[in-house]
Amino acid sequence: MANPIDRIGEILAARKPYDRIAKDLCAHLRASFAHYGWVGVYMIEGGETLVLQAWDGPAATEHVRIPVGEGICGLAARESRSVVVDDVRTDSRYLRCFLHTRSEIVVPIFADGEVVGEIDIDGDKVGAYNETDRIFLEWCAAKLGEIHRRDDSRP
Ligand code: SME
Q1: Using CA atoms, how far apart are residues 9 and 140, in angstroms rounded to an integer?
Q2: To pair with 62 at 20 to 30 A between CA atoms, which of 49, 92, 96, 140?
Q3: Residue 66 Cβ < 6 Å to ligand 1
Q4: Which alpha helices (H) appear in 48-123, and where do they start and end?
Q5: Is the CB of residue 37 below 6 angstroms from any atom belonging to ligand 1?
């Protein structure tokens, strides 16, 4: 099997619509990295609501639509920055999707300088995400942003 990073290149280069690429990326990230327990991509609709577009892991029954500004996801979107929470039990902004989640990392997806969505990852251990995760996921998000912009500009 190709190494995980090479495989990401293949997923991102596939001639598929944005939502399919996002879904493939979620599945690949979760399968490749044990500390990525749930991987989702939210996209902003109407400028003010994050809508879960693709994911891999248990089905989220709550918070599939999150107003920008609410929760950790809404915070990252409103402030256009990545957010890492080491222990969600101590963060009152956190919106709970899964009982066993302890850590979360949310990384915005930009297109033309605007936040258009985000990658959201949950893990079961406290302090699961570090700077390497942030930098890596920001790279993935930048690629998704390019693909989103390309799809948007298609006639
Ligand atoms: N925890 C997120 C909500 C989404 S779930 O993690 C899938 C938040 O606080 O915004």
Answers
A1: 10
A2: 140
A3: yes
A4: 71-79
A5: no
